[in-house]
Design goal:
The chain is an all-alpha fold. Helix content is 41%, strand content 0%. It is elongated.
Length: 51
């Protein structure tokens, strides 16, 4: 019985730590570069499918 309660406690801790990590603030350190303008030409190619 003692092993069962320990396993349930460990499983609960595992799930609660996973949920806490999902909803924690991001720790990514990406540079703030903003929106990059598109300076190219759009590619308009018609695709014809002959099945």
């Amino acid at each position: 019985m003692m092993k069962l309660t320990q396993m349930l406690r460990d499983a609960g801790q595992f799930v609660s730590e996973a949920i806490a990590r999902l909803f924690a603030p991001s720790d990514a350190s990406y540079p703030e570069i903003g929106v990059q303008p598109f300076s190219g030409e759009l590619h308009h190619k018609t695709v014809k499918a002959d099945w």
